[in-house]
TrEMBL record:
It comes from Archaeoglobus veneficus (strain DSM 11195 / SNP6). GO terms for molecular function: ATP binding. This is Putative circadian clock protein, KaiC. Residues 31-283 form the KaiC domain.
Length: 295
């Protein structure tokens, strides 16, 4: 017989609303509303909502894996166990990336090594093609290593060549992480025909419709005089943006922000795009005037 709940029965099971830090400015972009002195005020959550499953999507080289790795290092350095399921890149390459990122972030790499558990599905057809085998392995790692955060990079790699099953596969992993009370990140890729600024990923909207929220990363090549004038960047440079597309668990900043991947391989979120254009656009206009003078 199907079970139902009276709402009050769920109070003891409801998760508390607080943030799990990412080590980026995203931590200030999720918020909750609290009453103070008769007024409702926004209070930053301090990270991704606890027990949320967030989808990071974007075109190739937009910074998805960089952000996921930065989250992993931040959590591990704080003493929390992270399970990193690598589907695209062999685990030994992940080790190198996490070590360099730890150095750039000033993290204690001995703690990072101790607190990150890796499952390498990139070189295992069984783990990549058989969701049950991967879920069983993840359950063992979570139980044995007392994991609290899970990253799958990428979830798209688990339904390559079978996108008709994308929704079913994503739902399996989403329900699994909820059952094991994990805060999770799914990295998902876009097909070339998909709009870069949308939340859609390979497999359609399977990921975005199931997860608790989506963060869209994008990049634009500055290639016209208009771009130079608008963004204040030289031709040939890349403008990267990040936007929280939605979150079911709490409020969030809905603006598009400009960020850069530093020379040390970390995410640095700079300013809302509108403010960036105001600040840099003036510089761009001056550059454009000089170009016209020369011509």
């Amino acid at each position: 017989m199907a079970r139902y709940y009276e709402l009050r029965e769920l109070e003891s099971k409801a998760p508390k609303l607080f943030g799990i830090p990412t080590g980026t400015k995203l931590d200030e972009m999720f918020f909750k509303i609290e009453e103070e002195d008769g007024k409702f005020v926004k209070k930053p959550l301090g990270g991704l909502p606890y027990l949320s499953i967030m989808n990071l999507t974007g075109v190739p080289d937009s910074g998805k894996s960089v952000l996921a790795e930065q989250f992993a290092v931040t959590q591990a350095n704080a003493g929390y166990r992270v399970l990193f399921v690598t589907v695209e890149s062999p685990a030994n390459f992940l080790y190198t990336a996490l070590k360099h990122k730890s150095e750039a972030m000033g993290a204690d790499f001995s703690k990072v090594e101790e607190n990150i558990v890796v499952i390498d599905a990139s070189e295992s057809d069984e783990l990549r093609e058989n969701p049950k085998a991967l879920l069983d392995t993840m359950a063992y790692a979570i139980r044995e290593k007392k994991v609290t955060n899970v990253i799958i990079d990428s979830i798209t790699g688990l339904y390559e060549h079978k996108e008709m099953m994308a929704r079913q596969i994503v739902r399996q992993f989403f329900n699994f992480l909820k059952k094991w009370r994990q805060t999770g990140i799914f990295v998902s890729q876009k097909r070339s025909a998909q709009a870069s600024e949308s939340a859609e990923a390979a497999g359609g909207l399977a990921v975005a419709h199931i997860v608790d929220g989506t963060i869209v990363l994008d990049k634009k090549l500055v290639e016209t005089r208009w771009d130079v004038s608008l963004y204040g960047l030289p031709i040939g440079s890349v403008l990267r943006t990040i936007r929280i597309d939605g979150c079911r668990l709490c409020g969030h900043d809905s603006r598009t922000w400009v960020f850069e991947i530093t020379e040390f391989g970390t995410i640095d979120i700079i300013a809302p795009l509108s403010e960036f254009i105001k600040r840099r656009g003036r510089i761009g206009e001056e550059k454009q005037e000089k170009i016209e003078e020369v011509e």
